[in-house]
Design a protein that fits this description.
The protein has about 180 residues and is mainly alpha-helical. It contains nine helices and no strands.
């Protein structure tokens, strides 16, 4: 399949205002949004989940980015690992944590490690998270609300990771310093 990377001028009618919103928020339109723009449903879904996580998640911005990198690394999404590595740095995730996640390792912080283990188990086991991973998540101080927020991030990353696998968007220059290659 060949996907077009849309701009507000080339996007279908329903995606044009969404791309303009992205442009205002980021200062540019990341190529993944240009690909999503072919479908106003995909574009609005991605924006809506992202906005809801920012506004209402009990996971901190750092924890959200940790989950996004971990899930994207597990799914082998080169674009998302690079983009979220850049964003993670902006929200003050320690560089050693980012490096661990990019290498597929658990962070050294025990609470973050339980978070990553839980998220990766959810992806690996298609939601049938082993009891030991659930218990470690709860013992680390997380709750059922945190678990549902992790699943919301997984839904978000499934949309973008799979879209990127299908469309192969070029990495935006803003994320180039964090380029990453799947094993």
């Amino acid at each position: 399949m060949k996907f077009q990377i849309h701009t507000p001028d080339t996007a279908p009618e329903g995606s044009r205002p969404l791309l303009e919103q992205v442009q205002q928020g980021y200062g540019f339109i990341p190529s993944v949004y240009g690909i999503f723009a072919e479908s106003p449903v995909a574009t609005s879904t991605y924006i809506h989940i992202t906005d809801q996580l920012k506004a209402h998640s009990v996971l901190t911005p750092q924890e959200q980015q940790i989950v996004m990198i971990a899930v994207s690394e597990q799914n082998g999404c080169e674009y998302c690992v690079a983009a979220h590595s850049a964003v993670a740095g902006m929200v003050q995730v320690p560089q050693e944590t980012i490096a661990s996640l990019r290498e597929g390792r658990l962070p050294s912080d025990p609470k973050q490690a339980a978070l990553v283990r839980f998220a990766k188990a959810a992806v690996e086991h298609r939601g049938w998270i082993p009891e030991a991973d659930q218990q470690a998540f709860l013992v680390a101080g997380y709750t059922t609300r945190h678990a549902l927020d992790v699943l919301s991030i997984i839904a978000l990353k499934t949309l973008s990771n799979y879209s990127n696998h299908l469309a192969h968007p070029p990495l935006d220059p803003q994320f180039e310093a964090q380029r990453w290659s799947a094993k």
